[in-house]
């Protein structure tokens, strides 16, 4: 630390960055997780692109700390906290300068996912071109899938086909893509429920690629995601007619399709059919059925299916517990759902985001603010940061109940953990704070977002603008 302090003086580092170094980068500490969170927060708080970020990274991260695992964990946290994608990209490029860092597929896929999620497609293409030259083995089917699925979501059908052809020209080394790559293109459209486009792609490339059962399952998945049970079954019979043999994935998709439409008995019939043809159900199959029983509020059957898990020589995980918990919540039995949370702890199963989200939903409907606050403080005490839908739901609930101290405290908790809340949560909080005269707090939240290199939504900006004009008018009147 003395050495770092001298370096800071020599480099004439601004006082605030010297403070950041002094409070925290003890890389020989046993608690590496704490240090990773600190670095993530520094990256999130940095005013890039108004100021270059590489000098800051050099000042606060000793070169001896850079390792493959370290970079992967930072990128994972930046992804989870919805950081500005360009900052994450700068950190990745910074890491590449160190010879001890050998980029992995995991690190490459994380940064590619971060960039494409924020629609920085030109940067993503630059990254692919660079990695293809330096580490071509990192470009896998998964990384290609990330690229194609995001382009299909945010850009046109033609641009997605162009991206597929561009990837082929970059990666194939003179060899044409095969069925696996073709399946990625189909999945990109099917997961976005763009079935018309998926059919067009299938017809366009059918003669070039040989479809497999996996190809047919991708189509089934698309129809299922579209909520079209009839099309799922029609395509399934077409699949059989063409000579494709259904596998466990095929059955799981069909079962999920029936469950989500409330046709639980049809889903159970498929379970029996599976067992008759020696296609044995997996934990995912049973979990899906438990969830389906919950949709029809058949908690007895949900519990029976859950109890069958060990009898089938399977081990229940958090997903199975969450499915049963959801069944209890749907039927209004919050006490039984709470007991399941305790049972998870006894069995050393972590409460994940689905656990908290499901319980918050149930408590909001039954116990009201007191029950929600009790679970909320339990979540905070565990230093757990929920995903965006749960953040937005909690922010909405606190603001509707006029619990502005909790809402503002929740915001600060997220910021302190390096998380930049989604614009929906920001809109809810700013609107509520301004409408109840807490304009200064609303402006403080807005500044924090801007300091992280993110933009305010038009809604938040207009609310702040009107509040500022109203207060200016009131001061003039006074």
TrEMBL record:
It comes from the Eukaryota. Keywords: Repeat. PPR repeats lie at residues 212-246, 247-281, 317-351, 352-386. Pfam families: PPR (PF01535), PPR_2 (PF13041). The keyword Repeat applies. InterPro entries: PPR_rpt, TPR-like_helical_dom_sf. The keyword Kinase does not apply. This is Pentacotripeptide-repeat region of PRORP domain-containing protein. The lineage of its organism: Eukaryota, Viridiplantae, Streptophyta, Embryophyta, Tracheophyta.
